[in-house]
Amino acid sequence: MEARLRRRVNLILGVLSSALVTCCAVAALGATAGAGVVTPSSVISTAESAIAKEASVHVVFVAQEGSPPKTETIVADVGRASGTETATEGKASLVIILSTTDAYVSGNSSGLTTIFGMSSADAKKVGKDWESWKAATSQYADLKSDLTMSSVRALFPKAKGTRLTTVVSKGSTFSVLKWTIAATSSIPGVTNTLTVSSGATTLPVTEVARISNGAKATTTLSGWGEPLAVGIPPVAATIPSSKING
Q1: How many CB atoms are closer than 10 A to CB 232?
Q2: Fewer CB near the last or first residue (10 Å), C or N of the chain?
């Protein structure tokens, strides 16, 4: 995919933009629950199966870094084959819409450049309109991976190396998965904590990524299965990507 297409935060997966970092890692502490033994593997497997049955989810992602803190916020409604997302960072703003046939992006100049990674020249061409990509393109496929339920399933780590604890809050029981990735010469260390509901449904509730450089990102998931409406921009206000890059 073109580099300009994705400097922005990938919402639901705990991937942090700018000076933040992609995290993905991995322990296994069993905890007894009822007649069976609950392990990181069983929690992950049960949650992934539950997510596969859901048609949609509402996601809020907030990443903060620096002093004074710079904040990037993403609010998204994610479905099985479509979704919408609004991203803001200071005065920069960006909106992405994914339908089953096209993907669209629009925003102010700083949103298109600093959040989406578009060049200033291309942002000027887009103006206040929407740039669009057809479903057959790699750009569409990349955006689809962010704005559909597959991205939610990718929240989970591998079971090996992931620690499991159980907490009770307001009468409800939650499984808490925690894993870390060590710092390298190119990225800081990361500690991830994923809270998953227990009981009738086993679904992710929040994920918190704490970066050793002081940055922090929180993903909150709610509204599972609620109706998802995706509004399509008017044809007169859309510009095919080929005209922007041609």
Answers
A1: 14
A2: C
Q: How far is CA 187 from CA 34, 63, 71, 233, in A?
A: 41, 16, 20, 39
| C-alpha of 28 from chain center | 25
Query: Which positions ≥6 away from 213 have C-beta within 8 Å?
Result: 19, 65, 188
Beta-carbon contacts of residue 145 (< 8 Å; ≥ 6 apart): 151
Would you say the pTM of this structure is higher than 0.70? Answer: yes
The neighbouring-strand residues paired with 15 are 10, 22
Which one-letter DSSP state was computed for residue 187?
S
Q: What's the CA gap between 166 and 187, in Å, rounded?
A: 30
Triad 131, 90, 217: Cα angle to 5°: 95
Nearest to 18 by CA among 135, 109, 115, 131: 115
How is the chain split into domains, by residue range? 25-68+159-226, 81-147
Residue 152 burial (CB < 10 Å; 0-12/13-18/19+)?
Answer: buried
Q: Which two tokens stand for residue 175?
A: 């499984």
At residue 196, what is the residue type?
V
Evaluate whether 17 touches 8 at the Cβ level (below 8 Å).
Answer: yes
Secondary structure in 3-state letters for 88-127: EECCEEEEEEECCCEEEEEECHHHHHHHCCCCHHHHHHHC
pLDDT in tens, 139-195: 999 999 889 998 888 888 888 899 999 999 888 899 999 999 888 887 788 899 999
